[in-house]
Write a structure and sequence with these properties.
290 residues, alpha/beta, Rossmann fold, six-stranded parallel β-sheet, 9 helices, globular, binds nicotinamide-adenine-dinucleotide, binds ligand LTR4HWGZ, Sc_DH/Rdtase_CS
Amino acid sequence: MHVNGKVALVTGGAQGIGRAFAQALLGKGAKVSPGRGPLPSPPPPARLAPPAGTRGRGVAAARRARLGGGAGPPAVCPAVLPSVRPALILPSLPPCLPAQVALLDRNSEAGQESKAALAEQFEAQRTLFIQCDVTDQEQLKGAFKKVIEHFGRLDIVVNNAGVNNEKDWESTIQINLTSVIRGTYLGLEYMGKGNGGNGGVIINISSLAGLMPAAFQPVYCATKHGVIGFTRSIALAANIENYGVRLNTICPGFVNTPILQSIDKEENMGQYYSYKDEIKNMMQFYGVME
Ligand SMILES: NC(=O)c1ccc[n+]([C@@H]2O[C@H](COP(=O)([O-])OP(=O)(O)OC[C@H]3O[C@@H](n4cnc5c(N)ncnc54)[C@H](O)[C@@H]3O)[C@@H](O)[C@H]2O)c1
Ligand SMILES: CCCCC/C=C\C=C\[C@H](O)C/C=C\C/C=C\CCCC(=O)O
């Protein structure tokens, strides 16, 4: 997927996987090539019938097939390449603008630090940090509004904020599941074609623990199973209703981020604290990604 000119909102973006998402998005997308004006707007893709043999594989597949390519999006924006088929390629792609990312997080200090680090690596105006507790309905709604007011659009929502807390398990459900559902509905409200949006992508972060039982993390595990069930179901509804929004869930195994430190804390593990070594053994068995 190309992300040129897209605006993404990432919850829990101050550190860990959320920050890595932001960095990856910012690393993609090229600048407008000098000397070229904006390209013509693309035709509304959802209304086009897919070419024979591509039915059911989505608008992107249909567009690739029309362009004669099957290997996915170009790594570099075609507007900066000496195009051999300008008539075919140029009208169907948006202008090459860099992607922009809003980081939402309740941790203001880490959020400001990440914003500053990303601003050093990429242009400062491409990132925005908004302090927001995703469990606070009004704060979350307000943050979505702010992102659209600031960047003028919204194309990608990553519902990533999450915790591992078996002791305060009610808050784990609020953060890991309820807020993901709320973030998804807000994404559909702003991006859904039926609501006047332009379509987009919603990524909900689950876990390997959403696909299998985890003895010492029953509530964490339940929330991650819930994210998968919710996302798969709402993706079906989005398809039936032609929202133009693709929904996916990602299920990583162990990743080396601060959440793993929760295993060593009684205030997170509660009654399962004495099993921390078993969990560490699991981590060794499955491996930990960077
Ligand atoms: N690290 C792993 O091994 C792993 C594996 C699979 C899935 N995940 C999931 O990936 C997501 C990101 O986790 P991570 O590993 O980067 O953890 P992390 O602790 O490094 O980052 C989580 C971020 O979410 C933020 N956050 C927590 N509660 C919040 C709230 N109420 N409002 C706003 N922000 C809040 C935190 O401040 C933090 O910046 C989580 O949903 C986690 O369950 C992590
Ligand atoms: C077992 C969960 C440990 C919790 C550690 C803290 C946060 C990590 C969150 C990750 O989402 C966990 C990722 C993968 C764990 C998945 C399954 C573990 C169960 C495996 C087993 O019993 O063999």
